[in-house]
Write a structure and sequence with these properties.
Layout: H1 6-22, E1 38-40, H2 50-66, E2 72-74, H3 81-90
Parallel strand pairs: 1-2
């Protein structure tokens, strides 16, 4: 959405996520419930080129899935908490 900052994008994405989560898709025997994870990148803050914006939104989407799915993540350069934990675990003894 043009002129939308990260906070506004998070609000819009969360609104969409919650509506999909609450929606009952008609099924043959019973309604089907689905959830989504959303990754968001911001133009021009995260990138100015279309392909790089898509890549960064995809990175944020993977973080959303790693965080337990059914959530929204805004792209960040900072390592994900799991990435930081993995680096600490992989450090050789004595460092």
């Amino acid at each position: 959405m043009p002129e939308t900052d990260a906070a506004g994008a998070k609000v819009l994405a969360e609104r969409l996520r919650k509506r999909i989560e609450a929606y009952e898709f008609p099924g043959q025997e019973k309604p089907l419930h689905v959830t989504i994870s959303i990754g968001v990148s911001i133009f021009p803050d995260d990138a100015t080129e279309k392909l790089m914006l898509i890549k960064k939104a995809d990175d944020a989407l993977y973080r959303a899935k790693e965080a337990g799915r059914n959530n929204t993540q805004i792209y960040s350069e900072a390592p994900a908490p799991q990435e930081t934990e993995k680096k600490i675990e992989q450090k050789p003894a004595g460092h």
